[in-house]
């Protein structure tokens, strides 16, 4: 299981499920590592139309990318999510669910991933409860061609068990940090998208 390294934007002939998978993939990419200048430029050149909450959040990220420089974004990422010793903002679910890393929530997640036939790539340093890894799993569940892996019930169960209980707290932590600039725009998109997902799953 690895984080997404490529990005495809929604086009008018793509379905809603493809758009969902793409957005999870984008968030996985942005939270796994600071973006390259090429990716920043790609997002900056994307269309930002529509009046909905999610469309507005996307427009904010597009706007942020139009003035962002990769080196500055890298410094921000390292300040927020790496730091010296303990990161300023944790990106791991176990921290928000139990107060510690490598705790029972991670063990439960690993069990569910094993049942899905997924495991962490040994070259990836982050544990499976990293937000980027979880977004990548959701992308896989939506886009997978494996029988049974792309069911809405499976997506809903994974999201409800391993993401929904703590995602908004993560977004709040990033928004509240004084060093968050580019990643405040990223998180605005993430928050809006996660809230749409929560509402959609509740109605399913």
From TrEMBL:
UniProt-listed SUPFAM superfamilies: TorD-like
Protein name: Tat proofreading chaperone TorD
Keywords: Chaperone
Record-linked InterPro entries: DMSO/NO3_reduct_chaperone (IPR020945), TorD-like_sf (IPR036411), TorD/DmsD_chaperones (IPR050289)
The keyword Chaperone belongs to this UniProt entry's keyword annotation: yes
Upper lineage: Bacteria, Pseudomonadati, Pseudomonadota, Betaproteobacteria, Burkholderiales
A family per Pfam: Nitrate_red_del
